[in-house]
């Protein structure tokens, strides 16, 4: 389709020429869109306790031990939401702008797993949202 050799990486082609997301990025993108559409169903840390902390705007994650819950849809979406870059987090009320900025971020970074996003976000930007 793109006249590439059998050993060539598709990463740069997906990103530059086609503007497509790999399947893991598409999953991460859709998780955030799901979360953004249902923000009323999630609790923030300030809803759970009255202490004024720097993480008060982050979603509250309950402590669980089961890996089936930790790897589930809701838990993963909370982890991603809490690690959004600050400039994207600020757009959460403007859904269309959020969608555009989030997709551009994922195209630029071309991630292949949720853990890769979480480890990248820890290095790239701080966890606090203001």
| Uncertain runs | 125-130
Based on CA atoms alone, the radius of gyration comes out at 16 Å
Largest sheet: none
**Could you give the distance between the termini?**
45 Å
Number of domains: 1
Tally of helical runs:
8
The overall average pLDDT, rounded, is 79
The helix/strand class is: mainly alpha
Number of E-state strands = 0
Sum up the overall morphology in one term.
elongated
Order of helices and strands: HHHHHHHH
Describe the oligomeric state of these chains in a short phrase: single chain
In helices, the fraction of residues equals: 40-55%
Strand content: under 5%
Question: Would you kindly provide a written description of the structure presented here, covering whatever features stand out?
Answer:
The chain has helices at 11-18, 23-37, 45-48, 67-70, 73-82, 86-89, 95-109, 114-124. The protein is mainly α. The chain has one domain. It is elongated. 10% of the residues are buried. The model is unreliable at 125-130 (pLDDT under 50).
């Amino acid at each position: 389709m793109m006249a590439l050799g059998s050993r060539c990486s598709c990463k740069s082609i997906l990103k530059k020429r086609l503007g497509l997301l790999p399947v893991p990025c598409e999953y991460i993108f859709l998780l955030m869109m799901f979360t953004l559409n249902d923000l009323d169903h999630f609790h923030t840390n300030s809803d759970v306790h009255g202490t004024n902390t720097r993480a008060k705007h982050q979603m509250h994650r309950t402590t669980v031990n089961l890996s089936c819950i930790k790897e589930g849809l809701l838990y993963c979406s909370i982890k991603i939401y809490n690690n959004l870059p600050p400039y994207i987090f600020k757009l959460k009320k403007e859904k269309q702008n959020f969608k555009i900025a989030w997709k551009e971020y994922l195209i630029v970074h071309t991630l292949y797993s949720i853990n890769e996003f979480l480890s990248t976000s820890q290095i790239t930007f701080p966890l606090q949202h203001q």
